[in-house]
C-alpha cells in the first residue's frame, strides 16, 4: 500500500496515550465524537494540522501508557493516513494494526521530516520518502500488513467469514 500525506510532527519521545486522549472522554464510543478530544491533554493545537492527508511523525516509544484504542480511532476519524515513528509502545502498535492504521518505524525519516513535509510511504516494501529522499523502514510483518491492508482485524475476520 502506498500512502502519501503531509507531516504532522508530534515532538519528543514517550508520548503517553493518557495525555493524547484523557480519561474523562473514554465513555465516548463514536470515533467522530472522539475527534475534538484527541491530543487534549498533550497539545490540542495539533488537531488544527490534521485532515485527510495527515501522516503523524513521532519520536520513540510513542503511545506508551494505557492501551487506549481511542487514540487510533480518533486519528482515523480525522483522516490520518499513517504514522512514521522512531518506535512505538507495543500495545499502541498493535492497536494500529488491529484498527487498520499503518505504522512504520523509521528514525531517519523522522529526523528528516519537517512540519508539512510531503511523505510517501510504501508499506509493502518498507520505504519512507521524505520530500524526495528515501529511507528504509522496518517492514510491517506480512500477516500484520494483511490486517492493515484489510482495514484492521475486524474487517479481516469479516472478509474471511464472507469467503466461507
What's the quick description here?
It is built from 7 helices and 7 strands, in the order βααβαβαβαβββαα.
Structure description:
38% of the residues are buried. The chain has helices at residues 17-20, 31-34, 69-78, 90-99, 107-112, 142-149, 153-163; strands at 2-10, 54-58, 82-85, 103-105, 118-122, 127-130, 133-136. It is 32% helix and 21% strand. The protein is globular and about 40 Å long. It has a single domain (2-163), classed as Aconitase, domain 4. A seven-stranded mixed beta sheet has the order 4-3-2-1-5-6-7. By secondary structure, the protein is an alpha/beta fold.
Topology (elements, then pairings):
Layout: E1 2-10, H1 17-20, H2 31-34, E2 54-58, H3 69-78, E3 82-85, H4 90-99, E4 103-105, H5 107-112, E5 118-122, E6 127-130, E7 133-136, H6 142-149, H7 153-163
Helix pairs in contact: 4-6
Amino acid at each position: 500500500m502506498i500512502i502519501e500525506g503531509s507531516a504532522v510532527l508530534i515532538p519528543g519521545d514517550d508520548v503517553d496515550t493518557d495525555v493524547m486522549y484523557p480519561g474523562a472522554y473514554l465513555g465516548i464510543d463514536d470515533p467522530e465524537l472522539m475527534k475534538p478530544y484527541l491530543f487534549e491533554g498533550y497539545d490540542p493545537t495539533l488537531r488544527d494540522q490534521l485532515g485527510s492527508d495527515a501522516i503523524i511523525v513521532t519520536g520513540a516509544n510513542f503511545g506508551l501508557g494505557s492501551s487506549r484504542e481511542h487514540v487510533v480511532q480518533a486519528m482515523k476519524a480525522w483522516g490520518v493516513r499513517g504514522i512514521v515513528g522512531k518506535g512505538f509502545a507495543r500495545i499502541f502498535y498493535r492497536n494500529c494494526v488491529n484498527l487498520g492504521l499503518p505504522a512504520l518505524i523509521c528514525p531517519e525519516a523522522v529526523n528528516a521530516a519537517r512540519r508539512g513535509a510531503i511523505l510517501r510511504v510504501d508499506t509493502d516494501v518498507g520505504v519512507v520518502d521524505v520530500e524526495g529522499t528515501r529511507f528504509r523502514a522496518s517492514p510491517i510483518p506480512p500477516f500484520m500488513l494483511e490486517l492493515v491492508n484489510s482495514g484492521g482485524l475486524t474487517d479481516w475476520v469479516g472478509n474471511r467469514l464472507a469467503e466461507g
